[in-house]
Amino acid sequence: MARLFRAGELSGVWVPDAVHEAVRDLVRGRTTAAEDAPRKRQQLLSFLLRHGRFFSGGDHWTRAHRRWLAEQSFDHAAQQIVFQDAVATIEDAVERQRRLEEQLANLVRTWSMTPVVAAYQAMRGVSFLVAVTFAAEIETCAASTRHVNSCRSSAWCLPAPRPPTGKSSPATTCSTAA
Q: Could you list the residue ranges forming a coiled coil in this record (predicted)?
């Protein structure tokens, strides 16, 4: 190991602190909640379709669709219970996602990575949630160098060009000109 160190082949490793890990857990929980709501909506729509009920008044999950859902009733009590439970599950999933996003926004204000989140948001099209997710997940990979080598950190998010067949070339190319 001493020889590797002298040769400069060892690099520093950043170990995330407890707060960073907690933010990452919250980001992952919010992502799970965001994936859960559409899945629950699809399950309800499938249930309705199995029972010959389909909404023809426009797009799903609009105000008109929600009114239509509120008007639905089933002859058998078991089907009504399943329907009402599915509607309540969707409402809970949407509320859970909203609540986690609100808590994430409050927590990020005091997080050490807040300037990084703000810098990511300065890029066109990068929302708060994208910036926080990127800072929590990807930033740990490049945190030991803090983007000193932009090529190395960009390799995590940019596809590497393929070399022409039969030729060898580096996976990524960087310009180090200042």
A: 83-110
| pTM for this prediction | 0.67
Dihedral sign computed on CA atoms, order 32, 34, 38, 44: positive
Token representation of residue 164: 């022409």
Buried b (16+ CB within 10 A) or exposed e, 44-58: bbeebeeeeeebeee
Per-residue model confidence as pLDDT tens for the chain (178 residues): 888 888 888 877 777 788 888 999 999 999 999 999 999 999 999 999 999 999 998 999 999 999 999 999 999 999 999 999 999 999 999 999 999 999 999 999 988 889 989 999 999 989 999 999 988 887 555 544 444 444 444 444 544 445 555 554 444 443 334 3
- CA within 13 Å, CB half, 8: 0
**Half-sphere exposure for 163 (CA within 13 Å, toward CB):** 9
- Dihedral sign computed on CA atoms, order 68, 70, 75, 79: positive
